[in-house]
Amino acid sequence: MTRTVATTPFADQKPGTSGLRKKVPVFQQENYAENFVQSLFDSLDGFAGSTLVLGGDGRYFNREVIQTVIRMAAANGFGEVVVGLGGILSTPAASHVIRKRQAFGGIILSASHNPGGPHEDFGIKYNAANGGPAPEKLTDAIFARSKEITSYRIEDFGPVDLDRIGRFEAGSLTVEVIDPVADYAELMESLFDFETIRKKFQSGFRMAFDAMHAVTGPYAREILEKRLGAPAGTARNYVPLPDFGGHHPDPNLVHASDLYDEMMAPGAPDFGAASDGDGDRNLVIGKGIFITPSDSLAILAANAHLVPGYRGGLKGIARSMPTSGAADRVAEKLGIGMYETPTGWKFFGNLLDAGMATICGEESAGTGSDHVREKDGLWAVLLWLNILAVRGQSALDIVREHWATYGRNYYSRHDYEAVETDRANALMDGLKRRLESLPGTAIRGMTVSAADDFAYHDPIDGSVSSGQGLRIFFEGGSRLVFRLSGTGTSGATVRLYVERYEPDPSRHGLDTQAALADLIAAADELAKIRSHTGRAAPSVIT
Ligand code: G1P
Ligand code: ZN
């Protein structure tokens, strides 16, 4: 039986770059999740009788919201819900299942790399039929609808058994519980040369993959250990836990520091990697070298032709604006298109759909290709493994060779987290006001060549996204970028991205922060970061 339940709007349901993200207690308010899901359904057209894909990263509150979404999907007229066993689906796997099943779309429950638990983060995001994140037009519509919603529709049936694979009826709906790994593993097998990677492991190659108690555990065990024959224990922290074991499932040098330390110590495995809460980010560390995501994108793009899925070459490369220009040099050498988009994976969707780009990446540990419409952590790891197996060199040698060929883009991101919103805005506004006057000014011996507030003109749909970050370019190819995070859940996060290009191989061995010291100091002079934020240092440096 379908019920229409009266409700009143919440004012704070504006989806950010990755859906609606709030603390669990916010989502636990009566009707909160229901309002948002109904606002989403009200903003979609023509889904009667069609399929909705559903899953999450297993964090606290996942199962409850899965049950709610199933009952609301039934009441709103979907014909079928395809849900991962135990309510689990990684973001890239969900993207693939949406595409493979030609579903109408999918709902993914995750707050990505943010911590989970009763007082931590939760999130709901919607992906469209192409498997990619909802476009801005849709998220705007959802927000507008959420402010005027007066009722939602829900069907009355008991909890669906999420722990048994199979197809069954639930109210007016068909529910299919699927193995969350199978389709994805098959896709990976179609892209990569598993035989060659298997031989690499047989020859004694050792790897450490940290699933961070998040969603990629089951995927890594199946693919790395079972299908590729990596020794048991290659995947660690592989049981997804509702609170990620009390850690941030964020594969960076702060939260995956154990892995980093191990990779830098004597006796390190040959290759280390980690992924985040919902499986779309990746961290890759060679024995003795951390590979920045920006470098990783460039190196993967330069070597992709060695791998079956990309043997025909790349159509183009896309990167988010703050990501370093390392990949630009690869695109230039390959003679293919290079696209610079605003932060957020959704901006790659049109380029991928139009066949203009094959590989995309963001400095925030996101890399992916046209195989799905999300960034994909394990995919990046497998691409690295395949390249390592074919080239027969260490990751360190491959990185050094790459720098020698293309030059090195020293790169770092400084985050000032949970800054009071007013103070963060004052910092950005102050700098914005001065942008026009900056070109020609010298700071610490470096001359500003250009400065702007980045705006993106989508080459396919003509849409314009402005206000995407303040850029300050210096003569010689250095760059500072300032932007506010769109995904934080408390206060504002100021991100400073620092980049310096160094063509000379004899200067490729510097410590990154030291190599960028002048630019970092210039950033503070320009934006008065310390006085605006009241912080002596960033909360996180990556
Ligand atoms: C962050 C990253 C961005 C990524 C997004 C979702 O967004 O910087 O690259 O697409 O998370 O994973 P931000 O908090 O900077 O808005
Ligand atoms: Zn994520």
Describe this entry's structure for a reader.
- The chain is α/β, with parallel strands linked by helices and 542 residues long.
- The chain contains 18 helices and 27 strands.
- Strands 2-6-5-3-4-9-8 form a seven-stranded mixed sheet, with helices on both faces. A seven-stranded antiparallel sheet has the order 20-21-24-25-26-19-27. Strands 11-10-12-13-14 form a five-stranded mixed sheet, with helices on both faces.
- Helix 2 (32-42) packs across helix 3 and helix 7 crosses helix 13.
- The radius of gyration is 23 Å and the shape is globular.
- The mean pLDDT is 96.
- 1-O-phosphono-alpha-D-glucopyranose is lined by residues 17-18, 112, 320, 343-345, 362, 364, 366, 485-487, 495.
- Small molecules (ligands, ions, cofactors) in the structure: 1-O-phosphono-alpha-D-glucopyranose, zinc ion
The N- and C-terminal alpha carbons lie at a distance of: 52 Å
**Superfamily at the CATH H level of the largest domain?**
Alpha-D-Glucose-1,6-Bisphosphate, subunit A, domain 3
The CATH class of the largest domain, by name, is Alpha Beta
- Fill in the CATH topology of the largest domain: Alpha-D-Glucose-1,6-Bisphosphate, Chain A, domain 3
Largest sheet: 7 strands, mixed
How many helix segments?
18
Which ranges are low-confidence, i.e. pLDDT below 50, for 5 or more consecutive residues?
Answer: none
Just name the CATH architecture of the largest domain. 3-Layer(aba) Sandwich
- Order of strands across the main sheet: 2-6-5-3-4-9-8
Provide the gyration radius in Å: 23 Å
Summarize the amount of helix as a percent range. Answer: 25-40%
Please tell me what the overall shape is. globular
Number of domains: 3
The fraction of residues in strands falls at 25-35%
- Mean pLDDT, to the nearest integer, reads 96
Count of beta strands: 27
**Sheet/helix structural class:** alpha/beta
